[in-house]
Amino acid sequence: MKQITVLGATGSVGRRTLELCSSFPEDFAVAGLAARGSNVDLLTDLCEKHRPRAVAVLEPGAIDALAARLSAPKPELLSGPEGLVALARDGGADIVLSALVGAAGLLPTMAAIRAGCTVALANKETLVMAGRLMTAAARERNVPLLPVDSEHSAVFQCLAGHNRGDVHRVWLTASGGPFRDLPKAKLATVTVEDALKHPTWKMGAKITIDSATLMNKGLEIIEARWLFDLAPDQVQIVVHPQSIVHSMVEYIDGAVIAQLGVADMGVPILYALTYPERRPTPARSRSTSPTTTSSRASGSRARRSPKGARRPSS
After folding, report:
1. What are the structural domains of the chain?
2. Taking the CB of residue 217, how many other CB atoms lie within 10 A of it?
3. CB of 19 closer than 8 Å to CB of 266
């Protein structure tokens, strides 16, 4: 059983990760939770459900409110930036999923790397700010940095089994956001509510706004540059409104390998948690996927399904 610490537990990626931990109770246990502390009620509910050994909140004033709400036995409670670092470094996790938004994720993610934990990375800002430092630390300690962003998870999968020196370029896909077909003259009239209506993905508010402005794609170029040791001009963007192809890798011989799937963050999250294995993901659109027959259907690991999910027929 893998012990998981979730940095950013109350955000969309953090909550989806905890849902997946609940779906595979024999595979995952929650070692620690961290959050900014702005939603104490939700964090309390998550603590009561998952019973982590330790919890950290970035806002020092939220720790007392959390302590008052928690029932016994209470986890170890930590606060402030140093509390997040201590949780990531000393929390006893096999995998630290880094999903805090913005600069808050940098120090605890680096602490997890230096502690030798596998890092499932959903916080692209850490690589934008300190990509050279973070990737160097990961190489030094032989720590895997497993991408959770759907595009970078797709690239990671397309690179598997291939020589990195044979890569010509990487294509990151973009839906174009809610304003892709909007005339330029009307952009001055759009509202925040309009920007939050992403056409294909269900995500947190910040990344949804960044996707509407396409700023998120700029950050993803930098993320890909550091994750995959690419030159900046080896990372290209292609608009793909359907969000079926999540990214592609073009090789020097002209071959292009693409990763396709449903628009559900549960897929790249679960792949990062189980890598190099796979599990049947309880994805939102799973019922629309074609039914397949596996020659390994009789194997216990191939047949493992999330709690409450129907296994594919054989």
Report:
1. 2-148 (3.40.50.720), 152-260 (no CATH)
2. 20
3. yes
pTM equals 0.86
Backbone angles phi, psi at 285, to 5 degrees: -100, 20
pLDDT in tens, 102-153: 899 999 999 999 999 999 999 999 999 999 999 999 999 999 999 999 999 9
Q: Are 272 and 177 in contact (CB under 8 A)?
A: no
- Only one residue has tokens 């397309």, namely 158
In angstroms, rounded to a whole number, what is the distance separating the alpha carbons of residues 153 and 264? 12
Residues in the chain: 314
Q: How far is CA 122 from CA 48, 71, 201, in A?
A: 24, 30, 15
Pairing relationship of beta strands 245-251 and 167-174 according to DSSP bridges: antiparallel
